[in-house]
Amino acid sequence: MPQNLRKSGNIPLTKRVVDASPPGEKRYHLWDSELRGFGLRVEPSGIKTFLAKYRAEGGGRRAPERRITIGRYGALTPEEARRQARKILGGAATGADPAAELKAKRKEMRIAELVDLYEKEGCYIQRGKRQGEAMKPLTKQYTLARLRHHVVPLLGSRRVSEVNAGDIERFFRDVEAGKTARDDKIGPRRRIVVRGGAGAARKVFRDLSAVFSFARRREIVTRNPCETAAVKKTDNHKERFLTLEEIRRFGEALREMEKGGINRKALDIMRLWMLTGCRREEIASLRWQEVDFEHGCLRFGDTKTGKAVRPIGAAAIAVLKTIEQTEGSEFVFPAGEGDSYFRGYKTPWKKVVEKACLPGVTPHTLRHTMGSTAISSGEAMAFTGAILGHANPRSTAIYAHVQHSPARRAADRVAERIAAALAGMSDLEVDTPAPDEDEELLRRVAETLLKGGAEADRLRVVINALAA
User: Fold this and answer.
1) Dist CA 251 CA 269 (whole Å)
2) C-alpha angle 356/361/363, rounded to 5°?
3) Per-residue pLDDT for 397 more than 50?
4) Are 387 and 407 in contact (CB under 8 A)?
5) How far apart are CA 368 and CA 375, in angstroms?
6) Residue 145: strand, helix, or coil
């Protein structure tokens, strides 16, 4: 956008003009030529917000200038924003002061109303390299659910200006003690299950702090009471991960469940969680276009940390090559009905961890297992970060320069160790070659091929790939 147009008031704020207004090094404004006082604010982050400005107290050069935010572009179209600006400016022309009235009204706002406002205008990333971007739909859904299930019942009727650090501390302890826990049936095969506890308290505390930060930026409150609240904001316990012995039990449980007729999609999803270290939904919603067999990696277009390339080992590739593509679906694991992906892994997962005697283990535990196995195997921190797709700011510079081939070889070595445990081999057999190693290996291969089934199919894929 040319500099002279930024300062002038002869631009009609149409959708085309708004779309064509790029972010600059500093914030700038565009003012509409058709409605005096109606404008667009463009932030360096790319966020575009409609606003109205006017002179209070009936106007005049000495009257204080007021600016009132109408809403973000995207949530509002230019025409919708223009209609709201017309009402605001019309009231100001008759002596009203809409900005002062709104500010006074917001000081009387209740926490439940603030949560509603946050849903409409505040669900954006507040820091990091994705600052200013809208939350991902699932993140927004979970965030608002926590706010409505924990914050609204306990603090919803309180005025936002009256909530202090002591109130936040009591709220945290109440959630921790399970006062907001519930299990309500809301329809056929539909329930709302809300669990309290220390983990839930920490998560919703972070959500509430983000809400108060949003309110402070909007000048609804002057401080964020969460910043001075004395609560345990982090969990210092070590992350749970599986030992190689536990991985062997997990693999045995998978094989027994497969023989028992458990859904093959669910079991292959679990295998790939273990062999890739990917997040739960990254595998469940995996698309064929994201699988790069030639280079041995997964190319995600959109993850928790944005675009990502994850090197994977031959064991994971072998699992993927045994999966037949479903005609008409882009997903590796398509749903039985509809156009979405398979989500029926929750019940099989419970059966597998129960069979393997692994209480408390979650799909995310398998991700920690990949990381812990990599480090304990002597892999470099940078390679481990590349495998897991970490976006830790302190490590981003290292991960950004990891060469693909060494990272893939690291993924191969780690996945080989895990795959051996899944197949029931002992750590000694993996790390210490026996005198008759080749003979024993051939015997195992022959036995597996004679048994047939999914394990034999995967083994054939690996052997063919290595032979090629």
Assistant:
1) 13
2) 105
3) no
4) yes
5) 11
6) helix
- C-alpha dist (Å) from residue 243 to 264, 365, 426: 25, 11, 12
Residues 358 and 249: beta-carbon distance below 8 Å? yes
CA dist 120 and 95 (Å) reads: 29
Do 322 and 458 meet the contact criterion of CB atoms below 8 Å apart?
A: yes
pLDDT digits (tens, 9 = 90+) for 370-385: 777 665 555 555 455 5
Contacts of residue 327, defined as CB under 8 A and 6 or more positions apart, other chains included, come to none
- Distances 438 to 294, 431, 441 between C-alpha atoms, Å: 29, 14, 5
**Residue 394 predicted with pLDDT over 60:** no
Alpha carbon of 207 to those of 104, 119, 172, 203, 231: distances in Å?
25, 12, 12, 6, 14
Q: What is the mean pLDDT of residues 45-57?
A: 87
Contacts of 83 (CB under 8 A, 6+ apart): none
pLDDT tens sequence across 269-297 = 999 998 888 888 899 999 999 999 988 88
Measuring CA to CA, which residue among 280, 268, 377 is closest to residue 324? 268
Q: Which amino acid is at 303?
A: T
The token duo for 216 is 């402070």
Query: Strand, helix or coil at 62?
Result: coil
Split at pLDDT 50, 70, 90, the class of 304 is low
Which range, 47-56, 406-415, 432-441, is most confident?
Answer: 47-56
At position 140, the amino acid (one-letter code) is K
The predicted-structure confidence for 436-459, as pLDDT tens digits, reads as follows: 566 677 777 777 777 777 777 777
**Residues paired with 31 in a beta bridge:** 39
| Mean pLDDT to the nearest integer, 128-135 | 74
* Length of the chain in terms of residues written: 468
CA 135, 396, 289, 415 torsion-angle sign = negative
Residue 223: exposure state from Cβ atoms within 10 A (0-12, 13-18, ≥19): middle
391 pLDDT more than 60: no
Burial degree of 260 (CB within 10 A; 0-12, 13-18, 19+): exposed
